[in-house]
Amino acid sequence: MSTNSEKISHEDTDPEANPVSDDITKFGPAPDGGLQAWLVAVGGAFTSFACLGFSNSFGVFQEYYTTHQLSHYPPDKIAWIGSLSIFIQFAGGALAGPLFDRFGAALVIRPAAVFYIVAMMLTSLCTEYWHFMLCQGVLMGMAMSVLQFPAFAAVSQFFDKNRAAAMGVVISGSSIGGIVFPIALSKMLNDSDIGFGWSVRIMGFAVTPLMGFACFAIRARLPPRKTDFFIPAAFKDQRYVLLVGALFFSFLGVMTPLFFLPTYAVARGVDSALASYLLAILNGASTLGRVIPGILADKYGRLNVFGLGGLATGMIVFCMNSATTTAGLVVYAVAIGFSSGTIISGASTAFSICTDDARNVGTYLGMGMAVGSIAALIGPPVNGALVERYGDFLQVSIFSGVMCIVGGTLALASKAATKEGLWGRA
């Protein structure tokens, strides 16, 4: 084990794999606090609110499209809209992360914020399946990718010892968005005469000032790096490869409740409006599930929390079919929300331990998320096909639960490639 650890340590300090130049030493260590650092974190939380919060609400659109504009399409085909958006949102990190590392925040985030609002307004005009695929799937996914990865990378430059906690604050914005968007959209779509178009436009107007704040709050602390655009040497690190695999399998399973919990609730006789509120409850619990594990990760190990979160999420997904009453569904939404909250925030901080140069975090995170995004693309349609084939959600819960447990196991296994070892605090 010591030989392997020494090898990994050598790769971390190899100039080609992890370039660290002398010009960043004058900037000193990360402040781990202060006005500027927390402004960056709040700006990141706003981007998570607008981007991940909106994509976390696709279950509302899944249920609405099934009974309105796209009622003549099967569930798996409708799910492709949301899964394509999430796929591009994370796959685009392969470009967005390196762009931030090389050019900073201003040239990346500000154009993307304008593009995101435009894409949301175009979605409000959609009527055909290909319209939704193009605007909500492709255009919004591209904009969200370029917004969120620079935010993650910027926070990593301002925080070191408290990085997991700060990242939890950033990711918690997505949970708060996941509360606001489903409740607001459900109310407007199901209990008013506003209609689909203006419901989506109102959401666009609501996030515009948040995007404006984020554009000026998020900035890099360190100078851009001048090395290669990508860092392929990252895939020589056993930790990194195992973490990418952990994220891939976790994404295959964790999207299930976000996409299908409202549809499952309606199938169990719950009112459509109340079913949409379950998604808000899930995301509300996920807020605590992103902040509290982040604090614990800084103390007890980032890989430990990421891995245990994946295992817990898998076991809870197995229990989905046991929730058959409204009270049971509320309890289930709270449980799955809290446990699944560790997946995104846990992965974001876990990737940061694979490099000693904070200027590389955006690239490491972007490349890893890009691979994991393939699972986000195929997972929901596979679940939709299982629902269509069997007419029930038992097979969906089994498939998704197994995938999350595999992901959690791989995250814990990555500890074997750290200097702390399998049983250490890493």
Can you give a write-up of this model?
The structure is a single chain. By secondary structure, this protein is mostly helical. The chain has one domain: Growth Hormone, Chain: A (Up-down Bundle), CATH 1.20.1250. 76% of the residues lie in helices and 0% in strands. The protein has helices at 2-13, 35-50, 52-55, 58-67, 75-91, 93-103, 106-123, 129-158, 163-190, 195-217, 238-267, 272-300, 302-318, 326-352, 361-390, 394-413. Helix 9 runs antiparallel to helix 12.
Task: Chart the SSEs and their pairings.
Blueprint lengths: L1 H12 L21 H16 L1 H4 L2 H10 L7 H17 L1 H11 L2 H18 L5 H30 L4 H28 L4 H23 L20 H30 L4 H29 L1 H17 L7 H27 L8 H30 L3 H20 L13
Helix pairs in contact: 2-8, 2-9, 2-10, 4-5, 4-9, 4-11, 5-8, 5-15, 6-8, 6-15, 7-8, 7-10, 8-9, 8-15, 9-10, 9-12, 9-14, 11-12, 11-13, 11-14, 11-15, 11-16, 12-13, 12-14, 13-14, 13-16, 15-16
Q: Give the helices and strands as they follow along the chain.
A: HHHHHHHHHHHHHHHH
List segments where confidence is low: pLDDT < 50 over at least 5 consecutive residues: 1-22
CATH topology title: Growth Hormone, Chain: A
| The number of domains | 1
The Cα radius of gyration reads: 20 Å
Count of separate DSSP helical elements: 16
Distance between the termini: 15 Å
Query: Helices and strands: which structural class?
Result: mainly alpha
**Which oligomerization state do the chains in this entry correspond to?**
single chain
For this entry, give a set of tags.
426 residues; mainly alpha; Growth Hormone, Chain: A; globular
